[in-house]
């Protein structure tokens, strides 16, 4: 289903004000623009492509769209190296395209959440270019972490901190006369210099960026690497035993002042504008501190996503996260994957079905059929849990992780690992929409644009990452005609989730169950049962089955399956 592309005025759309708590139960769909839909045949997704598919997203049943960075960027790290926070990457479209997308989505009842990347900017950002051109100790350099090196000639890095992408965190500059200069800090790639959040210019700039996008109707921001902003200015090494709050670059107490200021800005707008944090903090109490009533609304729950397909592990994660959120009254979020993480169909089919960045390797075997059964069961399990639900594009189609040829990989995680880590490109392959061969409708047919109008474009180029030849059976077109498909399962699940008021935010109670089974009630009338064991199981008393990830066998729920049940209160 497609939505006509229309033109609107420049006024920002008004967000609904009657549902101030929409975010507590929302289903939020992650859009990786480069890989969603290509409107002009250049092989790269764009905002007009997203606009043309808004009808599909409405039919799927989502409440909001979260966009990965869509700003101008050299794309050294997939757009997380931002050179201008107030514009759109020309490959994706224009600022007007973004404004139209925000407005048209809202007209369908779908809010927009954008990515903010506060820890660093692109090395091509005007601030960093000015800093490189300025002298040591200059005001331009104070916005970043420039520092002399150690040793007699300053040849040693200021610290031995390790990059989040492996390797070093400092790069040395060159002075105008060609001699070696100061070093600058980058917790990710050298093309992503870290900002100094002790500087008032940095704080004021990002607060203005928030207002810029809120003024254009954005309903919230997802905050990338939210716990990394503040660094210890004394530059100590990372201790062998890190006490809570004692890491020199992670989860420092001062970071909460930043988000209190952001929350005041968000709360100054009509219609709830939410702050969603990417917070990798293992300590539950410190994680919850980001969700106090005057800070972020929600934060990503990574613990659940990384656990193996085992009942005790998943139950422990559910209990942990609900307990962590309870003291601050925030809802948990639930997610199975994202643009960084191995897709569920592949991950759950492996002998080790957990996830860790350090474990990613080429050639890891997987049982795709087993993974698909488990991914279907996991989809219903997560959708039944209390709080909000995030869905990464393509998971509703059951797409597997793609092991791409090394020569097409772009992800810096691959290159900085010395070629050992396959990187994250395998979950970023462009979506298949229709047809029997690549580009599977991702790009328009020869001579047609995203609206189906003839003569608008020529023959599309190949997608920016190659799609597997066997994806014809996984296209939206193929799955819409198949009641047994993953797409049908997701559409039904999201409709039921919206219809049954016990689902979404609210109480949850574990029910007695056999080993290997997760059973819980939502309110008085809905029960979710997931069989992670090896044998079929009998279902609890119920008056009807709302939905099942697999057909019952002799009235029993088979292994690696989830059923939603309705029972009379």
Give an account of the 3D structure.
The protein has 569 residues and is of the alpha/beta class. The chain is 23% helix and 12% strand. β12 and β13 form a beta hairpin. α11 packs parallel to α14. The model is unreliable at 1-9 and 447-452 (pLDDT under 50).
Q: How many extended strands?
A: 16
Residues in helices, as a percent range = 10-25%
Count of DSSP-assigned helices: 14
Strand/helix succession: EHHEHEHEEEHEHEHEHHEHHEHHHEEEEE
Q: What is Rg?
A: 24 Å
- Spatial strand order of the main sheet: 9-8-7-3-2-1-11-10
Beta-strand proportion: 5-15%
Shape: globular
Poorly predicted ranges? 1-9, 447-452
Largest sheet: 8 strands, parallel
Question: What distance separates the N and C termini?
Answer: 38 Å
The quaternary structure here is single chain
Mean pLDDT: 93
* Class based on secondary structure composition and strand pairing: alpha/beta
